[in-house]
Amino acid sequence: MIAVDVPSKSLLLQHTDPLTLRSLLKHSKVLDHGQYNLAVRHSLEATKVLRNLGVAAPAPIKYHYRWPGKFKPGAHQIVMAEFLTLHRRGFNLSEMGTEKTAAALWAADWLMENKHIRKVLIVAPLSTLERVWLSEIFAVLMHRRAGIVHGSREYRLDMLRMDMDFYIINPTGLAIDSVRKAITARGDIDLVIVDEASTYCNASTRQYSALAKLLQPQQRLWLLTGTPCSNAPTDAWALARLVSPERVPKYFGAFRQQTMQQLTQYKWSPKPDSTRIVYEALQPAVRFRKEDCKDLPPVTVSARDCPLTTEQTKALNAMRKEMQVELRTKQITAVNAADTITKLRQILCGSVRNPLTDEYVQLDHAPRLGVLMECIAEAAAKVFVIVPFKGIINVLEKEVSKVYSVGVLNGDVSVAKRNEIIVNFKTQTDPHVLLCHPKVMSHGLNLTEADMCIFYAPIYSNDQAQQVVERFNRSGQTRPMTVIRIGGHKLEWDIYKLIESRRLGQQQVLDMYKDIALGGAST
Fold first, then answer.
1. Is residue 76 within 8 Å of residue 98, measured between CB atoms?
2. CA-CA distance, 413 to 409, in Å (whole number)?
3. Are residues 133 and 234 in the same domain?
């Protein structure tokens, strides 16, 4: 029998051998009266000792933490945070949309409060550094200092010299030798959190080598990913080598022999028991599916940043100069402003329409495409992507179909063909991804087989934006849903905000035009 006395921060136990327990536990005493015969200070160390002895002691964070921030933690987040505080190295393999980020931050904050760690390094995809991690720190840990280690080499090194609680960096930045050495030289990074850890499923990459070199035996390491083996069971080997190397063979080839059978010289297939082997390799771990999390909001909205390419930046600068001339020489109407902003949005998407020929000119937009593929990979079910321009849909179909089965819903597709695609999406394995123009997302369309909606870029209609979300947030939906907004420029984030508040009108369009022309908007 065990109970928690919160005021004294003690565990109260009724045990058959209290004297033996007393000898194993610091800050404990035998009680000679009442319901319990042993009192123990409720510390992390005591909890671990008791659990090793088979006593189901709760983690101290559950009872002795204020859970700061705007939001109350869900029951599943408390379990996640308990797990992370109790394991120096481990995995959170919960699905996307289960709020792993906040749980990891609360766990790290509790460890800081109780002097178990000093500083934290967060390694995450570039698209999530600001819009996910920094925003979440501001939301739940307002009392902590955080900085993004991204930019020029000099800026990254300057940021690492600053006194922060959380340093947030992307895998490419960590792979810069001088940056990695500067992190190591600090000597106070006691916890490394790796988000979207499937980035590190290939041990032969430069990024993996950099992370492996950075990690010290005494450091805590938490790997977060809902898709640890998105390619093959062998993806687990590299991740396990970081967290629990004793659980897998020393060499990749031996693990492949355990989990895969060779069909031809270059083709391998998973063995029947590969799932069990992977499960045992990726331990210790905690995992929640979205449908297991009863206190999740029905729709979670998140944002992903994507950097602009040189080609996009040059095109935007040229447009801005034209806008400055127009402001000086003529009266700008809302219609003029809307047309110009549409061209800017097309540049940001990577496909610009020539009004004379009605053809689209393609621009390099690899970072945005990469973010889209990252998001699709994280989904637990099917996905539909909202693409505001016809020209870019064709490009995306070609690229996305290299990995996933794809259906396209736009004005070029006949009504009969659209209906066939929708029926297959709802009843068959394929297509896995729908690329949709917002104008064909009509009332009554039911896409509850999807649990993720991705806006490749903001759309320009309050009503259409609402209709899009209603395509899967409706009767018959059995999963919590995720809406992801991709953007790479202040203009796009302004449009998202105006759409969300239903304030996008002529005056707002004129204001955005002037803001860009006068230099107020930046990436």
1. yes
2. 6
3. yes
Q: CA 509 to CA 503: how far, in whole Å? A: 10
For 295-349, what is each residue's pLDDT tens digit?
777 888 999 999 999 999 999 999 999 999 988 888 888 888 999 999 999 999 9
Same domain, 23 and 124: no
Give 520's pLDDT tier (boundaries 50, 70, 90): low
DSSP 125: -
Q: Is residue 137 part of a domain?
A: yes
Q: Do 6 and 82 share a domain, yes or no?
A: no
Residue identified by tokens 């064709």 is: 394
Closest CA to 436 of 222, 425, 326: 425
pLDDT tens column, 111-135:
999 999 999 999 999 999 998 999 9
Question: Taking phi first (over 0 means left), then psi (-120 to 50 degrees means alpha), and beta for anything else, what does residue 475 get?
Answer: beta
Closest residue by Cα to residue 148 from 422, 140, 131: 131
Percentage of the chain surpassing pLDDT 90?
71
The model carries a pTM of: 0.82
User: Domain range holding 44?
Assistant: 2-58
Q: Is the peptide bond before 431 cis (omega within 30 degrees of 0)?
A: yes
Return the DSSP state at 266: S
Residue 330 lies in a domain: no
Is the CB of residue 347 less than 8 Å from the CB of residue 319? yes
| Greatest mean pLDDT range, 164-168, 443-447, 505-509 | 164-168
CATH number at residue 260: 3.40.50.10810
Residues 378 and 438 in one domain: yes
Distances (CA, A) of 178 to 27, 71, 182, 221: 44, 38, 6, 22
Same domain as 125, residue 156: yes
For residue 437 the two structure tokens come to: 């123009």
SS3 content of the chain, % helix, strand, coil (to 5): 45, 20, 35
Cβ burial of 452 (10 Å; 0-12, 13-18, 19+) is: buried
Three-state secondary structure readout of 68-97: CCCCCCCHHHHHHHHHHHHCCEEEECCCCC
Distance of alpha carbon 428 from alpha carbon 432, whole angstroms: 9
- 271: its two tokens: 């063995």
Instruction: Tell me the CA end-to-end span of the chain in Å, nearest whole number.
Output: 58
Strands 2-5 and 10-13, sheet pairing? antiparallel
3-state secondary structure of 146: strand
Phi, psi dihedral angles at 485 (to 5 degrees):
-110, 125
In angstroms, the CA 183 to CA 161 distance is 9
Residue 283 counted as domain residue: yes
Average pLDDT, integer, range 388-408: 94
Residues 89 and 194 in one domain: yes
The total number of structural domains in the chain stands at 3
* The pLDDT value given to residue 444: 59
